[in-house]
């Protein structure tokens, strides 16, 4: 019994030494692998948040115990992602469902020329064509066709209600379905007016 206990003592000491070495190696691996753990990306600000020991961030000093202190620093990654994301200007120019490249303009001066309309509406972007109404029922109106729908939106926002040649313009997106309904309503009203005239003997 005494011999067995004396033989087991060195083994216990060796086992204790081995466990200490394993723990020491494990701590070294954990400290090296976790040096730059905790990287987070925020979608709203396009920033990268990195957690690291202060000893690894030479420009920064947080406290005397630099090796035990974690410091958060921000790295702006906007330039890296700018090619894959929309610019703030383009994102702010959201389009309405009825938006399109064709604008319908009303309440124009009867004497306005095509050149004057090109000068006015051309300030917002390239124009493909402008069609003026010349019939008695379409005088004072025009269709303006832009190359880009965003330019049409900007012109509609800026020129609707704009005072041009002593007239306040009405600028709308061209919507054929609504225009057809409007023509039908006008025709129906004219027919009702003619019937009333006949009933009351009015010429």
TrEMBL record:
Q: Where is this region: Disordered?
A: 1-37
Keyword Nucleotide-binding recorded: no
Subcellular location(s): the record lists:
Nucleus
What is one process in the GO biological process aspect for this record? mRNA processing
Origin organism of this chain?
Answer: Penicillium thymicola
PROSITE patterns given in the database record: RRM (PS50102)
Answer whether the UniProt record assigns the keyword Transit peptide to this protein: no
Q: Name one GO molecular function term.
A: mRNA binding
Query: Where does the UniProt entry say this protein principally localizes?
Result: nucleus
For bias type Basic and acidic residues, the affected ranges are 1-24
* Keywords, in A-Z order: mRNA processing, mRNA splicing, Nucleus, RNA-binding
Q: Which domain of life, per UniProt?
A: Eukaryota
A Gene Ontology term for the protein's cellular component: nucleus
The protein here is known as RRM domain-containing protein
Domain RRM span(s) in chain numbering: 101-176
């Amino acid at each position: 019994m005494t011999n067995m206990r004396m033989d087991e003592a060195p083994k216990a000491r060796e086992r204790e030494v081995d466990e200490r070495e394993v723990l020491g190696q494990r701590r070294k691996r954990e400290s090296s692998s976790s040096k730059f753990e905790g990287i987070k990306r925020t979608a709203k600000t396009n920033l990268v948040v990195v957690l690291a020991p202060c000893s690894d961030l030479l420009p920064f000093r947080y406290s005397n115990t630099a090796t035990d202190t974690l410091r958060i620093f921000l790295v702006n990654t906007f330039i890296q992602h700018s090619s894959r994301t929309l610019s703030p200007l383009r994102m702010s120019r959201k389009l309405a469902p009825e938006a399109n490249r064709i604008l319908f303009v009303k309440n124009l001066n009867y004497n306005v020329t095509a050149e004057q309309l090109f000068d006015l509406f051309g300030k917002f972007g390239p124009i493909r064509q402008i069609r003026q109404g010349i019939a008695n029922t379409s005088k004072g109106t025009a269709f303006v066709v832009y190359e880009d729908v965003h330019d049409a939106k900007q012109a509609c926002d800026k020129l609707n209600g704009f005072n041009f040649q002593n007239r306040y313009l009405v600028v709308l997106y061209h919507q054929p379905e609504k225009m057809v309904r409007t023509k039908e309503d006008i025709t129906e009203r004219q027919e009702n007016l003619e019937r009333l005239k006949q009933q009351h003997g009015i010429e």
